[in-house]
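input
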Amino acid sequence: MRVGADVPQHAMPVLARLKRDHPELTVSLQMGNSDAMLARLAEGRSDVAIVGRQAEDPRFVFEPLASAPLVCFVALAHEWAHRSAVTFSEITRATLILRESRSETRRLQEHALAARGLVATNVFEVEGREAVREAVAAGLGIGMVSAAELDVDPRITALALNGANLVKTEYIACLAARRRLSVVEAFFAAASAESA
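output
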């Protein structure tokens, strides 16, 4: 089975359940942002993927897997580290560490700022979630991520976003034409069992 995922935190529990239920399966996992994982599906290079958004494309089938709020996070040495929450207007006055433009997390951040008439003017762009975490831990600025995707790290702390109800949902995706394949069925079943 060839699996694509945009974040390991959602993929690994499903893969662990899948391997328990089907120890005979050989699994390969490719990581990347949602656009890259959907491209792999479309090209037939993945059987199933876990992605952070649904595409308006009838070739794909999507099923929700998990949802979590977006949070801000800062280094322990940051002036906000003692706080429990920040506002979006405060975020625009800080250095905001952003992922690449194709990132669903970045799209959510930019949409939330635009909806409030705000623009982040001091931006530091990096490729990938891990790079955002490392930049924040190094004191280069603040980051935003789904609470489910923020690894325990003694160098950083999370803060709620005041006045926001931003939720990031992860979906299982496959090509509609391949939905009834036994390996794809097995993955969806493992995901359903794991999320229950």
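quick obs: The longest helix spans residues 8-21.
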